[in-house]
Amino acid sequence: MNIDSVKSMTENCPIARWRRKKEARPAEILDAALSQFVEKGYRATKMEDIARAAGVTKGTPYLYFQNKEEIFKAIARGTFVANLQQLDKLADDFDGSASALLHHMVAHWWQEVGCSPSAGLCKLMIAEAANFPELARFYFEELIAPSNQLLSRVLQRGIDSGEFRAVPLVHTVDALLAPLLTTMIFSHSFGQLPGCCIGSTKDPLGFLQDALDLVLHGLKNN
Amino acid sequence: MNIDSVKSMTENCPIARWRRKKEARPAEILDAALSQFVEKGYRATKMEDIARAAGVTKGTPYLYFQNKEEIFKAIARGTFVANLQQLDKLADDFDGSASALLHHMVAHWWQEVGCSPSAGLCKLMIAEAANFPELARFYFEELIAPSNQLLSRVLQRGIDSGEFRAVPLVHTVDALLAPLLTTMIFSHSFGQLPGCCIGSTKDPLGFLQDALDLVLHGLKNN
DNA sequence: ATCAAGCTACTGAACAGTGATTTATTAATT
DNA sequence: AATTAATAAATCACTGTTCAGTAGCTTGAT
Questions:
Q1: Which DSSP category does B67 fall into?
Q2: Residues 131..150 of A with a Cβ closer than 8 Å to B: which?
Q3: Which positions in chain A touch B136 (Cβ < 8 Å)?
Q4: Can you give the distance from the CA of residue A63 to the C1' of nucleotide C21 in angstroms?
Q5: How far is B35 from chain A (nearest CA, A)?
Q6: Is the pTM of this model over 0.85?
Q7: What phi and psi values does residue B165 have, to the nearest 5 degrees?
Q8: SS3 for B220?
Q9: How would you write the pLDDT of chain B (222 residues) with one tens digit per residue?
């Protein structure tokens, strides 16, 4: 359907060379740009790469976005939206133990974020943070800080209920997040190289659960 | 010609505009390149940035290196050398408990690697892995895999002696490494942004020790 | 020790390729 | 036929690389 039309547009249909799609273009361009950025990095992807990946030519992206940087910003702003709210809700609605909740959250996170294209964006943000300070701040304030706060609340709940011992909250939150981040980063940096895999890239979800278990075992009151 | 540029070129001697230093140049250029790459990323760093940071002009780096990419490779190859051997030796010579050894190793690692310019290179490698697959493989084989093996040995020793319970080795190693990596990465990506700090960037060494304690608590036989 | 003469590390202007952005033109849609 | 989405050629700024010239160093004859 869509793919076919793109093909015929660029490849072998001599009549209809292209199609007008004012509504769909912006999203198509952003999708294409995300995958290109993730694949090659910001600087190494040319506007033409983005355009071709979106099935248009060099000039078209400029009809919808001011320039390359604005495309990057639009991607960043558009991607960090609703996932966190989902996790927030998950945490609020859950009425089992804090441990069980954490397991749920990790599984959910992996499925919705860790696995998804937005994981590539996270790696990209980390790589490009120094070059886009405003975006880095945005990323930090919109995603990292709230994630930390959410985890803090869950941990505090576990401590209050006596399920966990009174560990230093701030450091423990970071310790819980670390495996998630490294899994995401590694799978995007070395995941493609044949043979270059460590435990966490072979079986990401399994690793995440094991890592969580390990920390939880250390958190338990005994 | 500009007086300032002459001054900056030679620091403070208005007569001798430059000096011949065949022996020292390569190292100076590599040092300069490392700091520029770490600061701006590979693509965003111009050869002239490197040259100026090394106190020479655009042409000079080409007297010692074929091109920009070779400079990057030279840095990568030159940086991942002896630290791991030091840690290896530390582990072999140590005769206390596995927990105490791990604490020693973390402290040593932070001082010699986490804190140092080579930490910036690690972040850089992660960011550029997709663009330099050969280098990424080199980095993986020379640094990541051996680090994993070293930690495996230490863990296994702890398990054999009955100090630790029999956890899944591969995943546990990755779980131990995760806080080190995130600390390094975060401090380089968000460390400069005022106000953007999480627990691990505020007090890195403290965080590393706490994170290790947490996992060790989970590892202990009780 | 001095100084001329040669050597070469280094400079900096010029070159060439690249890639972001603009714009005149074309053709799909209404 | 009018409108305008999209193209494709042109522009323009930038940057990696080269190279002819310059100046700091070395050597050896005096």
A1: S
A2: 131, 133, 136-137, 140-141, 144-145, 148
A3: 189-190, 193, 196
A4: 11
A5: 13
A6: yes
A7: -80, 170
A8: strand
A9: 333 333 333 344 455 678 999 999 999 999 999 999 999 999 999 999 999 999 999 999 999 999 999 999 999 988 877 788 899 999 999 999 999 999 999 999 999 999 998 899 999 999 999 899 988 999 999 999 999 999 999 999 999 999 999 999 999 999 999 999 999 999 999 988 988 888 888 999 999 999 999 999 999 876
